[in-house]
């Protein structure tokens, strides 16, 4: 009996080590191309909407095996732009967005977002944030 157990034990031990291959995981951190990266926005009211963009900067974007897994990016509020209004009235909207009534640029010059979960989406990829209305 002892003779039969030893070869089985040795075979199991060898099998365990040969089947325990290490899969190489590639991991890298990237920064956004700040000159070519923007966050586009579309703001709605009951009667109309406006569209524009913000510049975006990043501290890091973590990529594991070719997929984004985490990171952070920052939106400088002062970079807000509007696309749909005539030039003569654009400053009115932009100053309102920077005012204490909206983003409050003086107290909150940056909005920082942390990526904690990434899920595949159908193209084009869009991120949508919904903020509850406070009455």
UniProtKB/TrEMBL annotation:
<feature type="domain" description="Lipid/polyisoprenoid-binding YceI-like">
    <location>
        <begin position="30"/>
        <end position="120"/>
    </location>
</feature>
<dbReference type="InterPro" id="IPR036761">
    <property type="entry name" value="TTHA0802/YceI-like_sf"/>
</dbReference>
<dbReference type="InterPro" id="IPR007372">
    <property type="entry name" value="Lipid/polyisoprenoid-bd_YceI"/>
</dbReference>
<dbReference type="Pfam" id="PF04264">
    <property type="entry name" value="YceI"/>
</dbReference>
<protein>
    <submittedName>
        <fullName>YceI family protein</fullName>
    </submittedName>
</protein>
